[in-house]
Write a structure and sequence with these properties.
Length: 101
């Protein structure tokens, strides 16, 4: 089975997540403004015409990217702040995490 066919057989939610994951990876490496939708879809192995099946608009896609990013980020911050230690130690752990990412 070809790679494209295998990708297209994923359930809608999985394919939507796959597109988001590919976009995040590309944007992490190149920067947000250096990545276009065509590159995301090509890298994800998704035909350009199928994009609107998974997202109503480019704005919805952008919102999904931001929601994913902040959900993950806030989860990490919550975990850092829940660690044992003084407030200063937890704050220092946050700054160390922030400087490494």
């Amino acid at each position: 089975m070809s790679r494209m066919l295998a990708i297209m057989k994923k359930p809608v939610h999985d394919m939507r997540q796959h597109i988001i994951d590919v976009a995040r990876s590309l944007m992490t490496n190149k920067g947000y403004t250096a990545v276009g939708l065509a590159e995301v879809l090509s890298t994800a192995g998704v035909p350009k015409g199928s994009f609107y099946y998974y997202f109503k608009s480019k704005e919805e896609f952008g919102q999904a990217l931001l929601e994913e990013y902040f959900s993950e980020y806030l989860g990490r911050v919550d975990a850092l702040m829940a660690r044992p230690g003084t407030g200063a130690e937890r704050l220092l752990a946050y700054f160390m995490y922030w400087s490494e990412t």
